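COURSE: Structural Biology Practicum
ASSIGNMENT: Worksheet 4, Part C
STUDENT ID: 0417
INSTRUCTIONS: Below are two proteins. For each, the amino acid sequence is given first, followed by its structure token string. Answer the questions at the end about the second protein only.

PROTEIN I
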Amino acid sequence: MEFRIDSSALTDAVAWAARVLPARSPVPVLGGLLLEAADGRLRVSGLDHEASARIEVEADTAVDGRALVLGRRLLDISKVLPKGPVECAVEGSRLSVTGGEARFGLSLLPLEDYPAPPGLPALRGAVDADAFAAAVGQVAVAAGRDDALPVLTGIRLALDGTEMTLAATDRYRYAVRTLEWKPEGGTGPVGDTDVVVPARRLTEIARSLAGAGLVRLALDGGSIGFEGDGVRATTRLLDGRLPRHEKLFTLGEHAVAETDRAPLVEAVKRVAVVAEGDSPVQLSFGEDAVRLHAGYEDDVASQRLPARLDGAVSTTVAFNPAYLLDALGSFDTGTVRFHLLGPGQRALLTDRADGVHQHLLMSVKPPA
């Protein structure tokens, strides 16, 4: 195998595929990246027991072939290569990597021991890459981090006609985002239309595919895959289901407050500097303003912002400041709406009347 490629293209390709490599593995070859050069293309693939990644980039392929090398070592080397063309070639039992006056040699791993990369599951349709990346980012902030509750570390992905629903919750907050997608080839088994995908994996995949136009989505009973712009990635699904959000998001009679989002974010950050531990930030909404307050006794902070309140004369709610900032940061609109039941009850944040993006927070009772 022998090929020539720009150093930045090599670094980007290796970095993409290396994301799925396990930090530690009892199987040494799973720490490897498979390089395949043929027909003016370089394909770089990596996998572990839960996910796979493959990317194809242009390269000047002088000799077709395949090689398996330690992925993280190749990534370290590619990052320090001089800018410009890089020549890679298999020489006996190692891969030589030459850029400018720098030359590296990497031991080859046994190809015969490397598992066959998983194929893409059954094609289900396509989704706009930029819209998908934005939607995943909006709900991922609410996903749990506790591996003892694995299903809560995932993002629900549900398909219904031409609508895709993404949702995540850690029991204290719940984010939901809907977007359009394009079904293809039937709806498939009913059980496959509502799955839970690891949030970290899905976030990485979505970010890397941004700008790729339409991304193909593939799904079966145990895994999900995405393909677009020369990139393919698969990951296993999590067992179980997230709690449904429909009843939680139905508030009945409630007050609605609206304020500018960016000034509110800055105000929360400002007053929260005196909030210790899980001490909340209070938001007291009136007819034409909201007053933020944090802290107790001598260490206190407050700020007033313009706001509009409908459905009540006044109401006060309080939130964990980190959760509130995560929620506000997940919106990209100029204003944000608070749908409020009252102190100590759930509150729903939305971006607009149609509720494309919704984020539920549990408020805490303000101290007397």
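PROTEIN II
(use this one for the questions)
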Amino acid sequence: MLVIRIWNYFRGYVIIKIEGLTLEKFINLAISKNIILWDIIRIDYTTLKAKVSVAGFKELRDVVQKVGCRVSVVEKKGYPFFINKFKYRKMLALGSVISISLVIFFTSFIWRIDIVGNERIKDEEITNVLLSMNVKEGIRKSAAKKLDISNGLLLNIQDLSFANVEIRGTKMIIEVKERALSQVDIKEDTPCNIVASKKAVIEKIVVKNGKALVEKGDVVKEGQVLITGIVKDENLASPLFVHSEGIVFARTKYTEIIEEPIIKFIDEETGKTFTTREIVIGSKRIQLMNGEIPFENYVEEKKVKEIGDLGIIKLPIITIQHIYKEVERTKIKQDVDALKQITAVQGTQQLMEKIPKESNVISKDVRYSIEDNLLITEIIVEVSEDIGVKEKIN
């Protein structure tokens, strides 16, 4: 079907309106003369809309005379009509060709690089690694090997646990995830600090080696030094670097929020579908099928296919198939008390997966609120745990 649509576009067709009392006779006579009409829409008892090729439209004259209907052109579509506009406008045509060429040329480069997901690691550090791999704004898309870039970031930045590179148009999006601060094995002869793995309130600190920088009741943030391995003394000419040892117990909070609509709709597909297609060339979109979506309630599914990959060069040409599936929407109201129990259990289960097994649960609080038809369940669990992790002193 897509091939036929593309063929009709390049061959050219017209959208016509047929008015009269013998519409069925008109269609039957057109079919008998091998004149193909498609996308026929009945507007009312005496009016139809349809599409027909340019050659078929010319042959409709005999049919119109025989059945006594009136045919008028609503719209001309297709490549021949598009080109005909430039027949007597050579400079405009030349400008259009140059513009399209420039669009294709400039869209083959990356003009913006966005870095998302980093908190502790600065953008400059990631940018410097990218520059060492010759990845920067203005690079050709063909030279930007996504797998090589993500691997290079993971190899050069140890605090990254994940890196993904995606190219959207002329923009490169680099999504990263940082490694969680966790206990690492550091040799006993290696100087190190003990830092906080998360935000917390200090309960108790036991120092075996090094010097405590915090005390009970202090609020600390992630990465803050709790026990330092740099010991300074008036009797020492220079600081002494030691391997810190100790345990830091602190109160931390874990929160999980579950949102569930009280009145919700359940969609069930009826099996009826409506499909449209379009070709996207750069920023220009060419609709290969017109018509309103005949459903009041529907879900949309998109199928995107690149057809501009010619091997040597990749043109920004894609086809998009839009599939609209009719659904019947059923409205149901959930019992609020039962919903509270369900969301509380669900949230607690999700929360317990995040809490370290060796920690001690101090308290648990469940809060409910209703906003705009949403039951919001907030589960707060307070625990006592060792938040200290070792970090080398460079």
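ANSWER KEY EXCERPT:
Q1: DSSP finds eight helices and 22 strands in the chain.
Q2: Residues 261 and 321 are 32 Å apart (CA to CA).
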